[in-house]
Specification:
Layout (H helix, E strand, L loop, with lengths): L1 H11 L15 H5 L4 H31 L3 H11 L1 H14 L4 H27 L2 H10 L3 E3 L14 E3 L2 H32 L4 H29 L10 H28 L10 H27 L12 H20 L1
Helix pairs in contact: 3-4, 3-5, 3-11, 4-6, 5-6, 5-11, 6-8, 6-9, 6-10, 8-9, 10-11
């Protein structure tokens, strides 16, 4: 019975007995005038890293606008390239304005959910649609692999399926429903939070739990399509799998951090707080970590997806030459065979 009560406290309350636990979150002006050295250092480092992430993001946007020809492809790549700057900027605002942390989390998650759909739109654009996929992969006797994350660990013996247009379309719908459901959840969450503040925490957790199957279905649909279609040789010059893995891993870390820091705060890891309540103290450090992760993702994407290495930048001289050489090589191999 004691374990049950403890578990309930960790979900709905806290194991701490702090006099200021339910104190109101201070306005930005009061918060910034009573900062401790640790908070000051975090804000300074976070500001520098966020600024560098934004500069890298602007550079990416310029290169994309200049060297990517296809308008739809340019739009998809631009959105995906904006993920790290967008998330980092909202996290930085939350460092300066603690009351904004919930809005920042919701908007960043919503951005990620749209990114899941856009990364599949980019894939379809690169391979020229479902019918082309079925034709090319059917000629190679390839099959649709459904033993992919996040369900392959639970169901490791899932079969492969015959590739058909309707099955690919169904996987696309699995991905597309994620931002739609997330939009509805975001609007409801904002209404609950602004109306009931801390009193809505339990309802918000229930709503988040209800939305988990939608997110998992979207991720599953993404992995099925990418795992299957990335076998096409035509995708290799674009380094598409790098684009997908960066978004996938970034989303995984971002999604896991919120419940982990929430649990740690309620378990008493961050104490009773000094200028912020325990939960907001935890989310302050969570947002600082998000800024660091965003900067790392920006650096990795810059190194792995620079125009000279990816055929996405088809107007870039080195990329065009590399793509042409790759196509020539593939044609030679086919004629030899």
């Amino acid at each position: 019975m004691h374990l049950v009560n403890t578990a309930i406290k960790l979900v709905t309350g806290s194991l701490l007995n702090c006099s200021n636990e339910f104190a109101a979150i201070p306005p930005a002006k009061d918060f910034l005038t009573h900062l401790t050295p640790a908070f000051v250092l975090a804000i300074i480092i976070g500001s520098i890293l966020c600024l560098m992430t934004l500069i890298i993001g602007i550079t990416h946007a310029l290169y994309i606008s200049i060297y990517v020809t296809h308008p739809y492809r340019r739009a998809f790549v631009s959105y995906l390239a904006g993920t790290a700057p967008f998330v980092s900027a909202f996290a930085l605002v939350s460092l300066f304005m603690p009351r904004v942390w919930f809005l920042a989390h919701l908007m960043s998650f919503f951005y990620f959910s749209i990114g899941l759909y856009f990364v599949i739109c980019l894939l379809m654009n690169l391979v020229e649609g479902r019918h082309t996929i079925v034709k090319k992969m059917g000629s190679k006797s390839s099959r649709l692999s459904v033993a992919t994350p996040p369900f392959c660990c639970v169901f490791p013996c899932l079969p492969t399926l015959e590739i058909e247009t309707r099955k690919i379309q169904f996987c696309e719908i699995m991905v597309m429903q994620t931002p739609i459901v997330r939009l509805f959840a975001t609007l409801v969450s904002l209404i609950l939070f602004f109306e009931y503040q801390d009193g809505a925490i339990l309802a918000l957790k229930i709503l988040d739990t209800i939305c988990v199957p939608s997110l998992l279905a979207g991720i599953y649909g993404c992995h099925i399509l990418v795992t299957t279609i990335s076998k096409l040789d035509e995708l290799v010059p674009f380094r598409y799998i790098v684009v997908f893995r960066l978004l996938d891993i970034f989303l995984m870390f971002f999604g896991m951090q919120q419940p982990i820091f929430d649990f740690l705060a309620r378990a008493g890891v961050f104490g009773c707080g000094t200028i912020l309540p325990p939960l907001e103290t935890a989310f302050f450090w969570k947002n600082f970590l998000v800024i660091v992760e965003s900067f790392i993702v920006s650096l990795i994407s810059t190194a792995l997806l620079k125009p000279s290495r990816s055929a996405l930048f088809d107007k870039y001289p080195a990329s065009s030459a590399s793509s042409a050489a790759s196509v020539t090589s593939m044609s030679t191999q086919e004629s030899t065979a």
